[in-house]
Amino acid sequence: MLYNHLKIAWRNLIRNKTFSMINILGLALGMTSSLLILLWIQDELSIGTEFSSAPYLYRVMEHEIADGRIVTDEDTPGILADELKRQFPEVVYAAGFSGPEQHVLAVGDKVSRQTGHFVGADWFRMYGIPLLTGSPETALKAPNNLAISKQLAETYFGDAQTALGKSIRLDNWIDYQVTAVFENLPAHSPDQYDFLLNWDTYLKREPWLNDWSNAGPGTRLQLRPDADVAKIDAKLRTFLKGRNKDISAHFNIQLFLQPETEAYLYSNFKNGHRDGGRIEYVRLFSIVAVFLLLIASINFMNLATARSVKRAREVGVRKVVGAAHSSLIRQFMGEAFLMTTLALGLAILLAGLSLPLFNQLTDKQLTLPVSQPTFWAIVFGLLVVTGGLAGSYPAIFLSSLQPVQVLKGHGPSLRFGAGAQLLRRGLVVFQFVLSMLMIVGTVVVYRQLQYIQTKSLGYDRENLIRIQGEGEIAQKYQTFKQELLRMPGIESVSHMQTSPLYNGNTTDGVDWAGKDPNVAIQFNNTWVGYDFAKTMRVKIVQGRDFSAAFGTDSTNYLINQSAAKRLGYQDPVGQPLSFGKRPGKIVGVIEDFHFNSLHVPIRPLVIRLAENWNYDNILIRPQPGQTKQALASIEALCRQLNPKFPFSYSFVDAEYEKLYKSETIIGTLATIFACLAILIACLGLFGLAAFTAEQRTKEIGVRKVLGASVVNVVTLLSKDFLKLVLIAIVVASPLAWYVARQWLQNFEYRIDLSWWMFVLAGFIAIVIAILTISFQSIKAALMNPVKSLRTE
Fold first, then answer.
1. Phi/psi at 146 (5° precision)
2. Which of 285, 501, 688, 763 has the most C-beta neighbours closer than 10 Å?
3. How far is CA 371 from the centre of its chain?
């Protein structure tokens, strides 16, 4: 029986080549897209779970409650890890974790810039990172210990065994001994680094981290499997009270734990509550995958039920000779699964061919894991879901036809019954509603990204060069600056503690006349050199920039407009201000500029002068049109003054674009999948238009004999389909507005949703539908009426 069903299914597939190809191609495109999305989702969900200890790993987070708002981040006191290990028996391992730092590593004439972290001695035991040489217990125990990756060991020493015990000079300053070589980290690991350094060295280098009132690095814990996280969280809320004595009584810091497995996906917090993150994109593309499968399956249902008149007599004969209802359902479901299986085979091939491009777009390293049972479970799931979805209604519809009516010649009346037509029209509307949602989403994402890329940040990021203050350049900054200003192509030079694009330094240690002692207010802060405003091209709205002509500027301050507003001074210039118990005066107010992501609002900013502290970011402004010459001048001087360090630089505008890399990737993927959704929907529309034209061949012939023009015939065949598209636009627009509005809430600075976005999306859908339908309509309209009338 099974063989007989398969043989009939194959014959029907071959007999109707056009409709079979439309169905197979539509299903294949839908399943290819879904398969790629599922691989991407699987990779996203696996980030943070790559280590065997992952279920027991936690990050210590801080809620900083001040001035009526709650700010959540991973910054903690540098001495927190050891104290938690002493105070909580549930803590198996604890380690501090500094932010990523770039250092120059040298072995003989082999010199390169690498990224690394300072970490606690428990790091390797906590994460279970495989060591090729060395011991997890002693790898980072002593101050001069250095652990490097396998790749770094091969670069400098040839292999991991040779590297053990060898010396590497860091920043042409200190020699470190290689005490461990760890396996290269997985590409999707949330923490990427080439080397690790001893934590005590970090605390010695940054003595302020030994104070409970200061926070900067992260803290990671591994708990016992039986640990009660809720009870630990309850104790952590008040853990810092009494320890951070310098913190205002009105500034409350509460600690809590976030599972390592959730840190990547749930990174956003709003007013003390988890507020999404990458998980939003996972949910978004899960929905997109479902949409694409639905659109492809609807094509199958529509074409199968539309062509039911061709199968009606077959059903009638089978029922007369004794075929059971269930047997017919199995037969038609078998046909659906045969077509789905062929489409799935094509989908796997297309997915394999498109993976390199998909990886390039998503910055992933995905592969088709054909050797893993999980992959085939996903493939089987796709087959069952898609085949069942596509074949269920046609099977039920065809098997329910009454043999008496069919054999009496009432098949067409069944085919064109009001219920069947209404269902098909509803499915077409549903397809285009989903397609419209994706088109509008693409337009909104594109406009938001365009807004981000073109928005004024309050300073001129174009043609602004940033280099690292290191080695001799940092120690001889004044010489470097003066020599550089004498060289051709250089307009101005300054330096800044933080990057212009990210400032995570915050403090509540700002005091001024009239400050309410019952309110703790958080300010961002940084230090800069002379010519800061000139180099950044930030606008000074009141007062002046720091100047060497004023000796007292070493204790004075610049503030931004948000800080001026929060201080409450009518005329802030000349008013007293104290930061970190260092009294001074405000010498200037600069226009608000963005020193963090557009996801967050501009915060009050206090800037102090530190001309001779130069281990930070040196900012260089080339003269207009002389960037190439300026870069040559900078490189020549760097090589002259700092020969032990490789020359490197970056443009601030290029770094700015990297900040929104995730949004750019999402925008690109949204565009691609929206185009695929329209293509799949139009394949179904093309098939329905072809079938409609075939069914009305005689009517078209009669109309042409009676004088109907080509335009009349095209209009006749197209208007019903266009009505459905217009209905879909009306239904989809409010849904699209709501979804787009929700996504835009993630940005503090965002575009306004405009009517033209929905009109544009509707126009695109209509134009594509017209092009799809008109091909078949014009083909039918141009047919010789004599030939048309002979068809029946």
1. -140, 125
2. 688
3. 28
Domain co-membership, 24 together with 95: no
Q: Minimal CA–CA distance to 286: which of 772, 669, 745?
A: 669
Residues 527 and 562 both lie in one domain: yes
pLDDT digits (tens, 9 = 90+) for 605-617: 999 999 887 678 9
The answer to whether residues 182 and 154 touch, using CB atoms and an 8 Å cutoff, is: no
Judge contact between 180 and 133, C-beta under 8 A: yes
**Start-end of H helices in 209-324:** 229-236, 260-263, 278-306, 308-320
* Mean pLDDT of the region 388-404: 64
Q: For residue 610, which of 495, 501, 478 has the smallest C-alpha distance?
A: 495
Environment class of residue 685 by beta-carbon count within 10 Å: exposed (0-12), middle (13-18) or buried (19+)?
Answer: buried
Cβ neighbours, 10 Å, residue 209: 22
Structural domain that includes position 17: 1-47+271-416
- Rounded to the nearest 10 degrees, how much is the dihedral formed by the CA atoms of 681, 683, 686, 688? -70
Residue 118 resides in a domain: yes
**pLDDT above 60: residue 468:** yes
User: Do 12 and 105 fall within a single domain?
Assistant: no
Q: How confident is the model at residue 12 (pLDDT cuts 50, 70, 90)?
A: low
The token pair at 661 is 């890399």
Structural domain contains residue 671:
no
**Pair (88, 227) in one structural domain:** yes
Check whether residue 220 and residue 199 sit in a common domain.
yes
Last residue of a domain, one of 393, 416, 439: 416
**Residues sharing a CB contact under 8 Å with residue 27, sequence separation 6 or more, in sequence order:** 296, 297, 299, 300, 339, 340, 343, 344, 347, 386, 390
Q: Which two tokens stand for residue 582?
A: 């260092």
Mean pLDDT of 670-694: 77
Cα separation, 467 vs 459, whole angstroms: 18
Query: Is residue 252's pLDDT more than 90?
Result: no
Residues 590 and 534 occupy one common structural domain: yes
Helix (H, G, I), strand (E, B) or coil at 678: helix
Question: How many C-alpha atoms does 749 have within 13 Å on its Cβ side?
Answer: 17
What pLDDT shows up at residue 92?
96
204/174 same-domain check: yes
How far apart CA 366 and CA 350 sit, in angstroms, is: 14
Residue 415: pLDDT band with limits 50, 70, 90: very low
**Cα distance between residue 44 and residue 26, in whole Å:** 27
- Band of the pLDDT at 230, cuts 50, 70, 90? very high
User: Residue 250's pLDDT is what?
Assistant: 54
pLDDT band at 781 (very low <50, low <70, confident <90, very high): low
Cα(56)–Cα(58) distance, integer angstroms: 7
Domain-embedded: residue 285: yes
Comparing CA positions, the residue from 759, 770, 774 lying closest to residue 723 is 770
Number of neighbours of residue 667 by Cβ within 10 angstroms = 20
User: Is residue 318 very low, low, confident or very high in pLDDT (cuts 50, 70, 90)?
Assistant: low
Q: Is 784 a residue whose pLDDT tops 80?
A: no
Contact between residue 125 and residue 152 where contact means Cβ atoms under 8 Å apart: no
Q: What does DSSP assign to residue 256?
A: E
**Which of 156, 146, 145 is closest to 107 using CA atoms?**
156
Domain annotation covers residue 710 = no
In this structure, the answer to whether residues 246 and 295 fall within a common structural domain is no
What percentage of the chain reaches a pLDDT higher than 70? 83
Amino acid at 563: A
* Residue 58, Cβ density class (10 Å: 0-12 exposed, 13-18 middle, ≥19 buried): buried
Q: Are 395 and 329 in contact (CB under 8 A)?
A: yes
Domain count, the chain: 3
Query: What local confidence, expressed as pLDDT, does residue 240 receive?
Result: 87
For residue 455, what is the DSSP state?
S
Helix (H, G, I), strand (E, B) or coil at 366: coil
Q: Which of 229, 263, 297 is the last residue of a domain?
A: 263
Query: Band of the pLDDT at 402, cuts 50, 70, 90?
Result: low
